Amino acid sequence: MAKPFLQMAAETHTRESEPTRKSFWRASRGWKRELRFKGAAHGSFTDLQALLPQIPGKTPFSDFVGTINPQRSVAAQRAYVAAFFDLHLGKKPTRLFEAPDERFPEVSLIP
Predict the structure, then answer these.
(1) Whole-number Å distance between alpha carbons of 102 and 58
(2) Region 29-47: what's the mean pLDDT?
(3) What is the domain partition of the chain in residue ranges?
(4) What is the pTM of this model?
(5) For strand 32-37 and strand 5-10, is the pairing parallel, antiparallel, or unpaired?
(6) Band of the pLDDT at 14, cuts 50, 70, 90?
(7) In sequence order, what are the residues at sequence separation of 6 or more whose Cβ sits closer than 8 angstroms to the Cβ of residue 76?
(8) DSSP-assigned beta bridge partners for residue 110
(9) Mean pLDDT of 20-38
(10) DSSP class of 89
(11) What are the DSSP calls for 20-34, one per residue?
(12) Which of 70, 75, 78, 104 is 20 to 30 A from 95, comparing alpha carbons?
């Protein structure tokens, strides 16, 4: 792929742990960044992350949505997605993809 690409990854599912992601990453020639969310699981990037914790009782949802704080996770996702589109569609510079941001310590930039 020659177009900009942003990958948000759960803590354990990254291009290093997934062979198909690794080959895609190597073959991509455009701007690209991978973000790893500490405590996130696959479902952390869906609406269920915010909805499941509201179910009364002890519903085992951490396997699906992880242990990351839903409000902080959603805030970080919004910030990084907005910055990605601002950068590549709006041509607005951002430092968000250059170094860790103290507002989002749960998020690591993976080179």
Answers:
(1) 32
(2) 92
(3) 5-110
(4) 0.88
(5) parallel
(6) confident
(7) 37, 103, 104, 106, 107
(8) 34
(9) 92
(10) T
(11) HHHHHHHH--S-EEE
(12) 70
Alpha helices in 29-98 (DSSP H): 48-51, 62-65, 70-88
Task: Specify the 3-state DSSP secondary structure of 38.
Answer: coil
Tokens standing for residue 38:
């500490």
- Nearest alpha-carbon partner for 69 in 95, 47, 29, 38: 38
Residues forming a β-bridge with 6: 33
Tokens representing 72 are 């902080």
- Cβ–Cβ under 8 Å, residues 41 and 14: no
pLDDT digits (tens, 9 = 90+) for 52-97: 777 776 666 777 888 899 899 999 999 999 999 999 999 999 999 9
- Residue in the block written with tokens 């910030």: 79
Q: What's the CA gap between 95 and 103, in Å, rounded?
A: 13
Per-residue confidence at 19, pLDDT binned at 50, 70, 90? Answer: confident
